[in-house]
């Protein structure tokens, strides 16, 4: 029957097809593929915290299924997600083919409907022309020159939040803070400034509503997925719909006010471009063009208006893609500096040298000169990449580095495995050694594409500059004011649940440094 064909015969033929090319993997099992074994391997490895306490050799724990099967079948192997074949590819040349040279033949994997509801139908999930249009409209927000506008504002948030610690800690006494929680306030602020600019307070209200929605969606995600469940008028769904309406209403008001208050052709707050302004602007420009009958410019792809629904979805996407990722990076950077006091000292010396010993918020120029801190952040992104893997799907039959990949095959790019590969990074791959980045990213490894915490190619992370800027800023401000070490209650247990996070939080002890006179 057709079911047997899909669930049994086709997977068996595929196995045969790959096996002939020398690609093997765990055998396909009826219906579930290798999912059960994967879950068992992951649960087993994450059941215990890591020993020794501060080992960075976290790959076997975090991607245990990958480490396990790689040992048996080699680094390019086939595994089964139900009846769908997924090819693990950790060779940087092949990865470059998938993400850059032959990117047109692969598409981003479509996430589960519930995850989609969480992440929004924005840049992350859009495809084709709509993606290209949005990416073009939104890119200017993330240019470093534009982002510098958020430094004083986000810096102030960090300083205000730190002031709370200063009241409890002193030069004699330490204060314990779970930084994995704490940094979420910082990243939320940064993303709100970037997205809404001058309309920060209104934007905050929108994001708070969206955060509530996410809590509901995340709860639903934990339950077994029932097709259509999302559309049933359950109590939770009613609340979600209400929140959805509320978000739209708020945004409509905000947009209306924006249009009234400012020159409609500018999205300015002193020259800075925010996401909302750019999206409104694209719409206004389009309307104008459409209204002017003699326009010969109608064919320009940027002339399309971005409807309110799409603006709402983009806001959701940026909140989803930009908040937790960056707060995880901030938390891991702090943990690593706490584990490696010699690097903490070096980073602090540099901050004091570049920014002076006053407590002024660092400027963009100063942040640009913090080379050691930049190296530390890169080394953190290498060892503890917040996004541990990426997935693509072949849109057609593809020839990839000598292999024939049938249409529909999924490709798993285990970012973290590439980052921990001794053949690429040398025998000290599992050590924290920021010096390896001293001559820049391209020279840090034996292959120029061995470092990809933000992906690669046209669909590379649009928020990369923001994430790094924010991290540099927050860590520099902390280094100016505090020394810190891990709390004895810290348990080293990096765990992946969509993103890489510390399973038991990241409690860190902070001690105030003598104040500048
Ligand atoms: C340390 C922080 C971050 C990490 C590690 C990270 C990682 C990534 C990765 C690996 C991708 C590519 C995924 C793929 O190709 O399948 C990506 C895409 C993306 N990221 Fe980030 N990200 C971070 C911060 C941010 C921030 C702050 C924002 C927004 C404000 C953001 C927005 C996006 C968007 C919109 C995309 C999709 C881009 C497109 O397809 O055109 N990210 N990110």
From TrEMBL:
Segments passing through the bilayer: none
Organism: Iris pallida
Residues annotated to bind heme: 461
GO BP annotations listed: brassinosteroid homeostasis; brassinosteroid metabolic process
Cofactor: heme
Protein name: Cytochrome P450 superfamily protein isoform X1
Membrane topology: Single-pass membrane protein
Gene Ontology MF annotations: heme binding; iron ion binding; monooxygenase activity; oxidoreductase activity, acting on paired donors, with incorporation or reduction of molecular oxygen
Similarity section: Belongs to the cytochrome P450 family.
Compartments where located: Membrane
Domain of life: Eukaryota
């Amino acid at each position: 029957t057709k079911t047997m064909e899909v669930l049994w015969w086709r997977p068996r033929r595929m196995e045969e097809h790959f096996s002939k090319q020398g690609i093997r993997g765990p055998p396909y099992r009826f219906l579930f593929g290798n999912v059960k074994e994967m879950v068992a391997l992951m649960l087993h490895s994450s059941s215990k915290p890591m020993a020794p306490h501060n080992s960075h050799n976290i790959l076997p724990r975090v991607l245990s299924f990958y480490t396990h099967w790689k040992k048996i079948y080699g680094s390019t192997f086939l595994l089964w997600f139900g009846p769908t074949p997924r090819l693990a590819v950790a060779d940087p040349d092949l990865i470059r083919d998938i993400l850059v040279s032959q990117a047109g033949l692969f598409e981003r994997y479509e996430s589960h409907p519930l995850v989609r509801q969480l992440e929004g139908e924005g840049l992350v999930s859009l495809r084709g022309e709509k993606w290209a249009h949005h990416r073009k409209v939104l890119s200017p927000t993330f240019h470093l020159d534009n982002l510098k506008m958020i430094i004083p504002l986000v810096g102030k948030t960090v300083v205000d939040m730190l002031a709370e610690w200063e009241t409890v800690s002193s030069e004699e006494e330490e204060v314990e803070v779970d930084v994995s929680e704490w940094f979420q306030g910082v990243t939320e602020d940064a993303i709100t400034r970037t997205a809404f600019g001058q309309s920060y307070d209104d934007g905050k209200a929108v994001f708070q509503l969206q955060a509530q929605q996410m809590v509901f969606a995340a709860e639903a995600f934990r339950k077994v997925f029932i097709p259509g469940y999302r559309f049933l008028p359950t109590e939770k769904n009613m609340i979600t719909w209400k929140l959805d309406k509320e978000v739209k209403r708020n945004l409509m008001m905000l947009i209306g006010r924006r249009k009234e208050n400012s020159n409609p052709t500018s999205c300015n707050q002193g020259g800075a471009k925010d996401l909302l302004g750019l999206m409104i602007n694209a719409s206004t420009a389009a309307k104008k063009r459409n209204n002017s009958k003699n326009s010969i410019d109608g064919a320009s792809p940027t002339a399309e208006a971005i409807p309110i629904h799409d603006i709402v979805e983009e806001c959701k996407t940026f909140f989803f893609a930009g908040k937790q990722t960056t707060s995880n990076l901030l938390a891991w950077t702090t943990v690593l500096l706490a584990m490696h006091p010699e690097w903490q000292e070096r980073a602090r010396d540099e901050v004091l040298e570049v920014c002076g010993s006053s407590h002024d918020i660092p400027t963009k120029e100063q942040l640009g000169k913090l080379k050691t801190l930049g190296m530390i952040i890169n080394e953190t992104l290498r060892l503890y990449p917040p996004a541990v893997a990426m997935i693509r799907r072949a849109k057609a039959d593809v020839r990839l580095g000598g292999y024939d990949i049938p249409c529909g095959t999924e490709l798993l790019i285990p970012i973290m495995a590439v980052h921990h590969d001794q053949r690429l990074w040398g025998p000290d791959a599992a050590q924290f050694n920021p010096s390896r980045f001293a001559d820049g990213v391209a020279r840090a490894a034996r292959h120029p594409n061995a470092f990809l915490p933000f992906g690669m190619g046209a669909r590379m992370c649009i928020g990369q500059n923001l994430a790094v800027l924010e991290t540099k800023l927050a860590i520099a401000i902390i280094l100016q004011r505090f020394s810190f070490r891990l709390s004895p209650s810290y348990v080293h247990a990096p765990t992946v649940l969509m993103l890489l996070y510390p399973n038991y939080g990241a409690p860190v002890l902070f001690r105030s440094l003598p104040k500048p006179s």
